[in-house]
Amino acid sequence: MLSPNLKYAYYPGCVAQGACRELYLSTQALTQALGIELIELKKAACCGSGTFKEDSQLLEDTVNARNIALAEELNLPLLTHCSTCQGVIGHVNENLQQCQTDNPNYVEQVNGLLQKEGCSPYRGSTEVKHILYALLTDYGLEEITQRVTKKLTGLKCAAFYGCYLLRAQKYMPYDDPFHPEGMENMFRAVGATPIYYRGRTQCCGWPLSSYATNESFKMAGMHIQDALANGADCIVTPCPLCHLNLDSRQPEVEKVIEQRLGLPILHLPQLIALALGVSPQKLGLDRHMVSTKPVLEKLGISH
């Protein structure tokens, strides 16, 4: 039985359109392979990555109410492939939906600011969903398994959930925020072996990187070392900011902790798309700082 046609208002965020362009490419390749339609919100703004509220909660709420309103105009759920965007926009949506009952004047204030800029008002009529949970709950693991053409047998994958995906919102209906299994279940669906390790639900260190760089790199190094010690062939993350700290900065991390690491860090859409037979080149696997060749060689995929 084929999954129903799925359509989302796609919020790619900033990092996937810049430093992690391969995430943008692999998300497009994955959704095309699965027959999922994405309508990109090209007028959307940066979610702020949690920094707007340091100056003004109203600023964060208004900017992201506008992002949500763009999806509401299409009568579609807002889909993101960034845990940080999920956490920030999902929290704003959750908070404003509650305010519609408890503090309607605040929602009116937000919408008044949007109206001044000629933007559609926030209605609180849609949901914000990370691609991981869209695939798990809307598409379904059984359907994904049926579409696998290259089982990732023997590949040991360590999930790195990070902070925002699991605990930025009050309610997490799709997973346990402290003992999640969503990514591990996805690994099993595509034939890979999940690796469990202590740091998989902890912070990658990225938020510290601008003012406590060594501490940030030590955190990243600790997680990578832990995954390696538990036998991981790669770390898979649903967050491009985590990817930056774990992959792009891994050479710097190695210098700080004085240890060679060399562990490939994959974006979640890349891993799933590999199992669907999408070529490594189309997924941008040659764009990583840490070579992904060991992963492809273990899977017998030419690169």
From TrEMBL:
<feature type="domain" description="Cysteine-rich">
    <location>
        <begin position="158"/>
        <end position="247"/>
    </location>
</feature>
<dbReference type="Pfam" id="PF02754">
    <property type="entry name" value="CCG"/>
</dbReference>
<feature type="domain" description="Cysteine-rich">
    <location>
        <begin position="8"/>
        <end position="89"/>
    </location>
</feature>
<protein>
    <submittedName>
        <fullName>CoB--CoM heterodisulfide reductase iron-sulfur subunit B family protein</fullName>
    </submittedName>
</protein>
<dbReference type="InterPro" id="IPR051278">
    <property type="entry name" value="HdrB/HdrD_reductase"/>
</dbReference>
<dbReference type="InterPro" id="IPR004017">
    <property type="entry name" value="Cys_rich_dom"/>
</dbReference>
<keyword id="KW-0560">Oxidoreductase</keyword>
